[in-house]
């Protein structure tokens, strides 16, 4: 069996999927905090 054909893409996609799963829920919160800080920074 070919291990090299299975290892690389599997690990890379798993890693990218994990990072995306962590980042997607935080995007609205990050944008909200940026708006809040930008709104209060200008006084």
TrEMBL record:
Keywords: Membrane, Transmembrane, Transmembrane helix
Parts of the chain that traverse the membrane: 12-34
Protein name: Uncharacterized protein
Source organism (scientific name): Vibrio hippocampi
